[in-house]
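Hey, sorry to bother you again with one of my protein questions. A protein chain has come my way and I'm curious about its shape. I'm sending you its amino acid sequence along with the backbone structure tokens. I owe you a coffee for this, so here goes:
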Amino acid sequence: MKKLSLMAMLAIALVITSCTGKKTDNNAQDADTTVVAVEDAAAPASYYGTYEGTLPCADCSGIKIVLTLNDDTTYDLTQEYLEKEPAYDENGTYTVEDGLVTLITPSSGEKTYYRILDGKLAFTPDSTGTMVEGEMAENYILTKK
């Protein structure tokens, strides 16, 4: 749906700029601006992909996480509590707003939050998106594979 809307906006922009009849530098500059805006609109796709890492755990040696953010706003999550339970899988939907990914568990409505970084996701304890700080901060990072 996004691609269709993006293509429609691009087509309208091309029709408008081609129908003006003026061949000035300003029109060329306007056309360039339109292209840049379209390219910027596609930028969020950079967070799609698979992320891995091991988060701290109070009563085990860590929680191995494999999280895939799909381009259709669904996610696949595998969590393995090391030296405890077998891994379990979860699928659901996610939203992204202001660089904060919100995973929504379909069965319970529970939400989990990650801040988008450059090629990484940082687990955040709540919806404010405030990242964990201090010595343990690096332990809350998932790296894109």
